[in-house]
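Extended Data, record START domain-containing protein
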Amino acid sequence: MGYVLSAVARVLEQPTAWGAVWEMALLAGPLWAAALIGLLLGWAWRPRWAAGLVATADGSAAAPAPAQAPFATLDFWKAQLPARLRAPLGYAGTAVQQREEDKAAAQGSSEMANEELAVGKEDLVNLWRLVEGRDGGPAWIKMMEKSLPTMTYQAWRRDAQTGPPQYQSSTIFENATPEEVRDFFGDDEFRMSNKWDDMLIYHKTLEECQTTGTMKVHWVRKFPFFCSDREYIIGRRIWKLGGAYYCVTKGIPCSSIPRRNKPRRVDLYYSSWCIRAVESKRGNGGLTACEILLFHHEDMGIPYEIAKLGIRQGMWGCVKKIEPGLRAYQEARAAGEPASKSALMARINTKVGDNFVRSLESNSQESEIVEAEEKPARNNVARFLVLGGAVALACTLDQGLLTKALIFGVARKFVGQRKTL
């Protein structure tokens, strides 16, 4: 108690505001550091019954939580490391996961043949309506417009009545064909080796259909250090409609790969695009450019308002890496490098006739695009610090909607009180 009183006295004795702030930082810094370290260690060594309580609060009591590895094992400590440090040690941590995935891949062909395809006609209809602006959803709000010498990018966002924010983007590449861009986005091997998508740290094909080109793929994507990595089980299929390619990619269930605490699985995932030839922005009159219309949304387990802020700030930084990646891909193909297995699967497409489009045009609703720029966020440092601290704390806990809801509820209440002052 005496230490606290003496520290407060030192703060009050400072002749300037900056001096007082510095003394407060010296006082509060070690306390916050100790609290965060305590949370990390406490969560790492939590008893199994505590993990069960969190899983029950998260609404997933039906699926029993996987057994935690003893804290003294090497696999346990690998799982606690950030992705940047864990990657050199070899992803997956245990040989058990690799054996399970190999078993799932071996069973893939028979499952794909006997069960209904993971991506079907209804998904194509939904994507077509999104491309034509006839899905009947809310208006799109323009977020940004950027360009490079050989690439033009525009992005929009809208908030659905339920679920995460939805994003639409248009990317136009000069001197590229739809077939090149189709293979480029479907080539998971090149996506990792070239690192144009540096968030992807692991991929594996679980199932595939040589007739339709449908694939079931396991992805793990790297997230910032204060969040755990995210795991995706996605279904992917491409249709050819006229001269355009419609690729549907969405999250699908997979019982052959059990859920784990890390990486955290993302169930709600939708990332689909239309690839088509368009006229060049250079005005040469030819269809020498390629446009990719992307529609994307996912529930990453992060509060939607925080996710919107992070996506807006990091969107262009990720997008501008695609252009040099595409040019490197074109050079590799021109040099005669063989296509990867996933790129060959992307070339197996289901052709759709004109009668299919005419049947859709008679039963569609239009969605408008609002060209007005999105309103900028208020420059309120206090609110940003409160919400940012809540994000760091909630993502450190990493699991359990009940805990996160409590943290963000307190933070929002505090911010609301400041607005009324």
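Summary. The chain has a mean pLDDT of 76.
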